[in-house]
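Provenance

Sequences were taken from public entries as deposited. Structures were produced by running a predictor on each sequence independently, with no templates supplied. The record for Phosphoribosyl pyrophosphate synthetase associated protein 1 from Piliocolobus tephrosceles is shown for reference.
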Amino acid sequence: MHMNWNFFQKRNLNFPFLFFLVCRRLGAELGKSVVYQETNGETRVEIKESVRGQDIFIIQTIPRDVNTAVMELLIMAYALKTACARNIIGVIPYFPYSKQSKMRKRGSIVCKLLASMLAKAGLTHIITMDLHQKEIQGFFSFPVDNLRASPFLLQYIQEEIPNYRNAVIVAKSPDAAKRAQSYAERLRLGLAVIHGEAQCTELDMDDGRHSPPMVKNATVHPGLELPLMMAKEKPPITVVGDVGGRIAIIVDDIIDDVESFVAAAEILKERGAYKIYVMATHGILSAEAPRLIEESSVDEVGLLLNLEPRFAAVFSGNNKMIQSMLNCLICL
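Predicted structure for Phosphoribosyl pyrophosphate synthetase associated protein 1:
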C-alpha cells in the first residue's frame, strides 16, 4: 500500500499515525514517496520504489489548504500512472468540492470537473464516505464506493448517550429530513424538523438572471405580459415535532459553518429540549466554528472524520469530540 506519508507528516495533518495503523491492520507496506514544493511554489512528486503492475492505495485527507491537497493528489496519481501501476485507488474520506455539485447562479459544477481531473490523472477507483449528494457518484467514469458512516454514529448514540430512548432526532432543515428520518427509524425514535433556515435557492430573481432576458424599449403586446415573480420571504424558525423534555440529536453529513447548528440549538432549547447533541460525519469547522460551538447551547458534538488535532484543545467542559476514522478505513 503506497501512501503519501511525507506529505502528511510534513503538514501535520489528521493523525499521521493512522496510516501506520491501517498498514499494520491490513498487512500491507507503507510506500516510499516524497512530495514537496519547490521555491517557486510548484509541487513535485517522487516515487522512491518500483510500483509496476501493483495495486496502489493513496490515502488523502483534506486539510485547510484544499487546492494544494487536490493538486498533490493529482500529481501523485499521475506519477503512479506513469510508473505503470496496475490500479490506483484513492481513499478520500471527505471528497473536496462536494458542496459544488449543482449549478447555482452563474457558477459551475466544480465537483464534476474534479471527477474528470482525477480520472485523467490515472485514478481507477475511489473510496469515500458520505458524499454530500449521492448523485456525485455519477460524475465519475470509474467505480466509486460511497461508504456509510451511520452505523458508527448509531453505535455511538446507543452506547454513549445516556437515556437515548428519550431522544428525538432533529433535522436542522427540510433538506436534511431524509437523513434524519433514516436515523430515527433505525433507533425507533421520534423525528423533528426545523423550518425557516436560510436556504440556497435557484430562482432566477435570486441570481440576477431573467428568462426571457430583459430587453430595453421592447414592445409588449396587450395580454402577453409576463407574470411577476413574488418575492420570497424568509419564514421565522419553527420546529415541527415535539422536543419538550427530550434529548435533541441533530444529525447531518458536514459541520462547516456552524451558524445554522447554533441557531437550531437555541430554538430547541426554547422548545424545551434539555440536552442537545450534534452528530456528523465530516467536521470541517471553518473560521470561528469551534469557538461558536463552545459558546452555544450545544452540549456535545460527535464527529467521525477530518477533525484536526489542534481543535481538540478548544473544546472543554461539556463538549466532546469523537474520532473513529480508523474503524471506517479498515472497512475497505
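Confidence is low (pLDDT under 50) at residues 1-14, 200-205, 316-320, 322-332.
The first strand starts at residue 33 and ends at 37.
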